């Protein structure tokens, strides 16, 4: 019996694979696929030998592509707006061209090559959505996009190589995780529903009831899909329904982005009168971005945590296909360095609009990553899909059903007793006071010390795990946020320090 088990362990993925018709349900087949995978970490992983493609892989690839267009355009758009306020004269098509450029970079190198072939345990390097709110302050404090991007890459690589990211996630209890996911899901849903309401009621659109109709239909469709265990279809199906309904209700839409390639020359993007029209950063501009880069990297652990949780909830227990947090941070750091040096404006993080649907669909990272890379490059070159993916009704509905509702559900599932409920409540309250990074770091410290949640947790952990590491994380995050002026009631003192 032991020899037979050992022999089965030695068999390759290809040898252990079975056809889907040999299983009673589709879910059983997909779980079997996950259980027999043995990804090579920083090795060559080939399609059909080490993993296979399934129809379910198309959904996270589409969702990830839609999310990528939306988030990169948001990041670059905020950069452009803030720089123009400071007197930098960017070209009218700057945001679109830089977004297309970033789509090609991430699609070709990091989705297709890294996550698809070299390390299937690393999630794709996506966009750091939390940083959208602070980019204006980065520019106002004298920061430079190239300096910020490179600084984030260096600090992120240091955290990943020291395995600090995975350590912080290990020390985050279930109650803290649940509270963080609920807060992110709820605030995101409220924000984007509000945006859709405002967009529909605007003079440009003139359809004030658009949000009510779209969200109402989306809720019904999502509920039906959940009932039949087909939530993995929610993003493409609900996005298509949103487009059709919004257009039928009279919302204006037109294709504007023609096929083509953006300028692929880094010298153009970092020229003094071309691209960013800023030239290379000065010493003062490098110093100005340090606190913001620390803040960006400090926000990574809760972001990465939220994505891995979905795999843990949907994958079988014996799988080797789970996302490696430290490797994902390494790839996000490398992606940040490469994208920035080439001229892109994106700020990297774990790719949530890909990972969450992929986990729900019970699919491993690599197959969908390859398709995502192809879709991103195709959308950037063809142009017209970027108009579809970036249209407000499609954006809002895709994010609601693909990110915010699943975040809410996962968070609620993690709160199963009074102890975890207490930690979750404190996390939500603290996050509402400042932001999710503050809420996560403070609650992790209190939870590990046994002051909230499980009172015995502090006694069971080593002193370093219960006090030193969580305390240092909280102190660093709080100091940085105070220095850059995002702690309520405390004026920024970064200028005085410099």
Description:
α7 (145-161) crosses α13 (283-298) and α10 runs antiparallel to α11. The protein has helices spanning 2-10, 13-16, 26-36, 58-85, 94-118, 135-140, 145-161, 164-170, 174-201, 210-227, 234-248, 266-269, 283-298, 300-314, 325-342, 352-360, 365-382, 384-389, 392-414, 418-433, 436-448, 457-460, 463-483, 494-497. The protein has one domain (55-252, 286-497). The radius of gyration is 23 Å and the shape is globular. The protein is mostly helical. Helix content is 67%, strand content 0%.
Task: Give the helices and strands, then pairings.
Elements lengths: L1 H9 L2 H4 L9 H11 L21 H28 L8 H25 L16 H6 L4 H17 L2 H7 L3 H28 L8 H18 L6 H15 L17 H4 L13 H16 L1 H15 L10 H18 L9 H9 L4 H18 L1 H6 L2 H23 L3 H16 L2 H13 L8 H4 L2 H21 L10 H4 L1
Low-confidence parts, pLDDT < 50 over ≥5 residues? 1-8
Number of strands: 0
3D shape: globular
Amino- and carboxy-terminal Cα gap = 68 Å
Largest sheet: none
Report the mean per-residue pLDDT as an integer. Answer: 90
User: What value does the Rg take, in angstroms?
Assistant: 23 Å
Measured by DSSP, the beta-strand proportion falls in under 5%
Number of helices: 24
- What helical percentage do the residues reach? 55-70%
Structural class by helix and strand composition: mainly alpha
């Amino acid at each position: 019996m032991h020899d037979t088990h050992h022999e089965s362990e030695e068999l390759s993925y290809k040898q252990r694979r079975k056809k889907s018709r040999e299983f009673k349900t589709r879910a059983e087949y997909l779980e079997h696929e996950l259980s027999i995978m043995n990804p090579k970490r920083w090795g060559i992983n080939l399609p059909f030998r080490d993993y296979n493609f399934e129809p379910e892989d198309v959904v996270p690839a589409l969702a990830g592509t839609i999310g990528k267009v939306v988030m990169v355009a948001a990041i670059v758009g905020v950069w452009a707006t803030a720089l123009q306020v400071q007197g930098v004269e960017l070209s009218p098509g700057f945001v679109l061209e830089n977004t297309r450029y970033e789509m090609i970079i991430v699609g070709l190198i990091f989705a297709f090559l890294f996550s698809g072939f070299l390390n299937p345990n690393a999630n794709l390097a996506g966009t750091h959505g939390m940083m959208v709110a602070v980019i204006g302050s980065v520019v106002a404090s004298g920061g430079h996009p190239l300096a910020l991007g490179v600084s984030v890459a260096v600090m992120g690589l240091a955290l990943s190589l020291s395995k600090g990211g995975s350590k912080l996630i290990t020390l985050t209890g279930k109650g803290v995780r649940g509270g963080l996911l609920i807060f992110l899901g709820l605030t995101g849903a409220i924000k984007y529903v509000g945006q859709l309401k405002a967009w529909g009621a605007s003079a440009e659109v003139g359809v004030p009831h658009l949000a009510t109709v779209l969200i109402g239909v989306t809720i019904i469709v999502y509920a039906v899909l959940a009932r039949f265990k087909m939530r993995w279809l929610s993003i493409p199906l609900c996005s298509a329904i949103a487009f059709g309904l919004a257009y039928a209700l009279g919302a204006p839409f037109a294709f504007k982005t023609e096929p083509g390639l953006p300028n692929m020359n880094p010298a153009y993007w970092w020229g003094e009168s071309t691209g960013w029209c800023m030239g290379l950063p000065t010493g003062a501009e490098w110093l100005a971005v340090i606190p913001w880069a620390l803040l960006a990297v400090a926000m990574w652990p809760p972001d990465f945590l939220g994505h891995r949780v979905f795999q843990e909830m949907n994958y079988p227990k014996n799988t080797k296909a789970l996302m490696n947090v430290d490797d994902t941070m390494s790839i996000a750091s490398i992606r940040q360095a490469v994208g920035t040096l080439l001229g892109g404006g994106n700020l990297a993080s774990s790719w949530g609009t890909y990972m969450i649907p992929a986990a729900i669909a019970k699919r491993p990272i690599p197959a969908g990553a390859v398709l995502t890379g192809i879709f991103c490059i195709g959308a950037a070159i063809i142009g017209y899909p970027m108009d579809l993916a970036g249209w407000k009704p499609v954006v809002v509905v895709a994010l609601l059903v693909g990110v915010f509702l699943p975040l809410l559900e996962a968070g609620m599932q993690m709160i199963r007793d009074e102890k975890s409920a207490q930690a979750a409540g404190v996390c939500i309250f603290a996050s509402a006071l400042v932001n999710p990074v503050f809420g996560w770091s403070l609650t992790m410290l209190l939870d590990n010390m046994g002051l909230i949640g499980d009172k015995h947790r502090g006694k069971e952990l080593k002193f370093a795990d219960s006090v030193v590491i969580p305390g240092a994380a909280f102190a660093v995050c709080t100091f940085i946020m105070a220095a850059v002026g995002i702690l309520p009631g405390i004026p920024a003192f970064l200028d005085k320090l410099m």
